[in-house]
Each structure stands twice: as structure tokens, then as C-alpha cells.
Design a protein that fits this description.
Shape: globular
Strand order of the largest sheet: 1-2-3-4-5-7-6
Strand content: 25-35%
Largest sheet: 7 strands, mixed
Helix content: 25-40%
């Protein structure tokens, strides 16, 4: 498995991975209506291509199958961070996170932060993040609980 930066041809697979993960994994922590609002049926692949190219988006490439992806913004925000349902608990997320943290260090970013879902919270705690606050966010008329979390990096 290779961790690499996003390429335009990854957009469709990434959008599909996001949709399936939310609908099939996050459903264990959120209602059916919430996951449908979070990952609606009408996926816009062009939007995914645009957003992923504007950030440092790392993908875990398993011989052409995208096993996961995570996005780092210049302000230290980790946005989308998802692993494919068939690659959970196999170290994929840790490898993507390591690439993100290395890039943050390279860029001189000393604080990473994320709004982690209930599902993702244990992963980010394991990576050394602390919970700042629980919050409620609204998306397409549904209210969700997630957690603002942060981690301070020590420059190497």
C-alpha cells in the first residue's frame, strides 16, 4: 500500500468511498436521516476533484484501490478523513495520518485540529488528539454531534 497525494482521476473513487463509509460505517453512531443528509445520493464528483486538489489530500492506494484518504488544510485543519469499509483496523488511517502530520511539520504547522464524528473520535484520541468540545452541527436540516479535537505538534 502506497500513501500518495491525490490525483484528479481519484475523485470518483474518493467520493464513492466517502458515501459508502458514511452510509455503512457511520450509521452505527448516527440515524438513517443523519447519514442521508451527511452523504446524499447525488454525489458531485467534480466538486470532490476541486476540493481535494485545493488541499494536501493523501490517499492510501492499494494497487489502484483507494483504501482511505485524508485532507490537510494550510491552517492545520484536517477535513475529510475516511477509510474504506473493507480496510478498517488495518493501519490505513494511521499511515494517512502520519503523512498528514509529516506535511504539517514540513510546513511549520504546530497545531492540527479536526471536527471528528462519534465514529472517528476514538481514532483521533489514539493519535494523540484532545477533545476541546462536543458540538452540534447542522447539515441539510439534520443536527449531528461531533467533537472539536486538537493536537499540538513538536517540531523536529
Amino acid at each position: 500500500m502506497k500513501i500518495r497525494l491525490f490525483q484528479q482521476q481519484d475523485a470518483e473513487q474518493i467520493a464513492q468511498l466517502f458515501h459508502e463509509t458514511v452510509r455503512e460505517i457511520n450509521i452505527s453512531d448516527y440515524s438513517n436521516n443523519q447519514v442521508k443528509a451527511w452523504a446524499p445520493d447525488n454525489i458531485d464528483f467534480r466538486n470532490w476533484a476541486k476540493v481535494c486538489s485545493e488541499r494536501f489530500t493523501y490517499v492510501a492506494d492499494d494497487r489502484g484501490v483507494i483504501a482511505g484518504f485524508g485532507e490537510l488544510e494550510l491552517n492545520g485543519h484536517i477535513d475529510c478523513f475516511y477509510c474504506h469499509k473493507n480496510y478498517l483496523r488495518m493501519g490505513v488511517g494511521s499511515k494517512i495520518y502520519s503523512a498528514i502530520e509529516a506535511k504539517a511539520d514540513e510546513l511549520g504547522i504546530n497545531r492540527l485540529y479536526v471536527e471528528a464524528s462519534i465514529t472517528a473520535k476514538p481514532f483521533f484520541l489514539h493519535m494523540g488528539f484532545s477533545i476541546i468540545t462536543e458540538q452540534q452541527v447542522e447539515r441539510r436540516g439534520e443536527v449531528f454531534v461531533n467533537y472539536v479535537m486538537e493536537k499540538f505538534l513538536i517540531s523536529s
